[in-house]
Amino acid sequence: MPLNKESPPTTGAEPETAPHVSTFARVGLVMYSFLIVYASLYPFYNWRDIGLPFWAFLLQPLPHYWTGFDVITNIIGYLPFGMLVVFALHPHLRGLAAALLAMACGALLSGTMEGVQTYLPNRVSSNLDFITNISGTCIGAIAGARLSGIFLEQSRLLRLRQRWFVDDAGRGLIVIGLWPLAQIYPQSYLFGHGQFMPLLSEWLSHLLETPVDLVTLLRRDMEFSVQEYWLSETIITACGLAGALLTASCLLRKQAPRTVLLLLLLAATLAAKALASGLFFAPENAFAWLTPGAKGGLLVGAMMASGLIFAPPTMQRRLAVVSLLASFIAVNLVPTNPYFVATLQAWIQGKFLNFNGAAHFLSLFWQFFALWFLLHPAHRLKQK
């Protein structure tokens, strides 16, 4: 009878896995900070010095006229910042220490933004905004300190993420999570992110005090017919859609329900676009962006993505880069749709200036975030 080998002694408990830093939280914190800066200083021109020091807003009396809407939006705007700071510090700094550091960061960021707004004529520095921003940071920091262990160490959502998504998906999940939000700001072409030419033309016009149209200069006064506008929008929409879906697809493991997840992402993105259009303009304009060119682009882009989402991840990343670059180049060379310009003139931003600034930031820079992720050195290191 053979002898049984001795098994190693057991302690009765499984070894605990040491908590890791959250790439998702750290990348999210950087992007959200840029979002706050852009929203606070939008639209970035007509700077002037009125003779007040940087910190003058702190010494002024509280404003006589304010609304509950302003208070709530200021609190909500900084709440994710406080939570993300605490999550980004985990596990090196936890609990009260992490919350206090997050509050200090929120006070520094908000104070800097209010001080810089002193030099912008269309923004008003306010100590009430400063107080409410800090309040939002405090709420987020306390919530983050209480929830960091649940979300970062023992969450069912975390286990689901580990089962469906690749190990280094944190950066990509942030980028893909921002894609539906990047549709909120009105765009001349569906998924036409990164349209810098009109913005640069506007800035140069203010700087040189003369009208400047960079798109016209690049096109050399070439006129577009209606059919050419449709074809341009089809190309922009198809490349933007395929690039985004391929970016999301390369994050997924083989056992993930790939088709279902990508369809849900697309549905959420189109729903965000429709909801924003209905709120900004009128309910009957909720689907005004669904032009013949956009419909053709959705069809072509879906066909492109459906044939490539099961390709190797390396090929998906490369094709996503090509698609996003093609969309970016096309949207900056094609003139802005005249119908879109007429529609945008009826848009009164009013009290939503901060929100619209944040939405504009995402509309401009989402493609760059996606390209940063797709070209990140971590992919090359993983292949070696």
Automatic annotation (TrEMBL):
Keywords: Membrane, Transmembrane, Transmembrane helix. The keyword Transmembrane applies. It comes from the Bacteria. Coiled coil: none annotated. The chain crosses the membrane at residues 24-45, 65-89, 96-113, 133-152, 173-191, 229-252, 259-281, 287-311, 318-335, 355-375. InterPro entries: VanZ-like (IPR006976). Residues 39-142 form the VanZ-like domain. Pfam families: VanZ. The keyword Hydrolase does not apply. This is Membrane protein.
